[in-house]
Specification:
Helix content is 16%, strand content 29%. The protein has six helices and 15 strands. The chain is α+β, with helices and mostly antiparallel strands. Helix 1 packs across helix 2. The strands form three sheets. Strands 4, 5, 6, 7, 8, 9, 12, 13, 14 and 15 form a ten-stranded mixed beta sheet that branches. It has a three-stranded antiparallel beta sheet with strand order 1-3-2, with no helix packed on it. It starts with 8 loop residues before the first strand and ends in a 7-residue tail after the last strand.
Amino acid sequence: MSMPAPNARSTLHLPQGNWATVLDCLCAHFPAIDRSTWADRFVRGRVLGADGQPLQATHPYQVGLKVYYFREVPDEKPIPFEEQILHLDEHLLVADKPHFLPVMPAGEYVNETLLARLSKRVGDPDLVPIHRIDRLTAGLVLFSTNPESRGRYQALFRERKIDKRYEAICPALPDLDFPRDERLHMVDGEPFFLMKRGDGEPNSETRIEVLERRGELWRYALYPVTGRKHQLRLQMATLGAGICNDPFYPELLERGRRDQDDYANPLKLLARGLEFQDPLTGELRQFESRLQLDW
C-alpha cells in the first residue's frame, strides 16, 4: 500500500454517540473498514487531531471532535499519463490534466490524482484546486498556492468572472445554426451520477461555435456560462451530438465497459482556455492548454 499524499486527508467531526474512544467511533462510522485497519492507521500516525498531531487509539470519544484521517487504497492502479505544470507563482498553479486522471481523491483514487501528484511535485501540502473538471476530461485546472489569497480567486468562479473555453469532437449538426446559445434545465438523473433534461426554466447555458468540419465529425468550441455537473456532455447529447467516446451520454454504457478505462479512446473533451482579470493586480490573465484532441 502506498503512502497517501500529504493533502489527501479527509475531515470528520465525530457524530453523536456513546462510544468510549475515537477508534470505536470510526469503526462504527465506517463499517466497511475493519477494526484492525483503523488500529493500524492509529499506530502509523494516520489519524490526527484538530492540531494536526497523531491521536492514540485510546483517545476518548467526544462529540464534535475534529479528526483528520488519510484514505488509503491498497494496490492503487497507476494512471499512465503525466500532468504538466504550465504556470506557478506565489498565488496560483495552472496545470494541464490528462484524460483519466481525477483532480481530487475519491473512490479508488488517492495518490493517482492531479492534486496528490502536484502536491508532491512542488512540495506544497496546502495546494487546493479552485475548480474541478471531470476525470475523463483533459485540460486546464487552476490551483491556489496561497491560503491568504485563495478566497479572491475562488470568487471568480462563484461570481462568473472567469471565461472558460472547451473544445469537443462530436457528430456533425448540419441542420442547426451556429454559433448558438444552448440553454437547458438540468436535474439529477438515474443512476445518481447522471444528469438529465428536466422541465422548467433553464439553469445551464453554453455558447457553442463550430471550429472545424471533417465530414461526419466536427470540432466545437464550448463556452459555458454556468458550471453545472456534466453540463457540456448533456447539452451536446441533447442536441443529438454526444461527445465522442462518452460512456455516459447519450446512452449509459453497461458497468463492465464504463469501469474499464479505454486509454486508446478518451472522451473528446478538452478544457482549452481560462481568462480572467486578476483580483489582486487587475491584469488580464490568459492560460491555454498545450494538449490536443485527436480525430
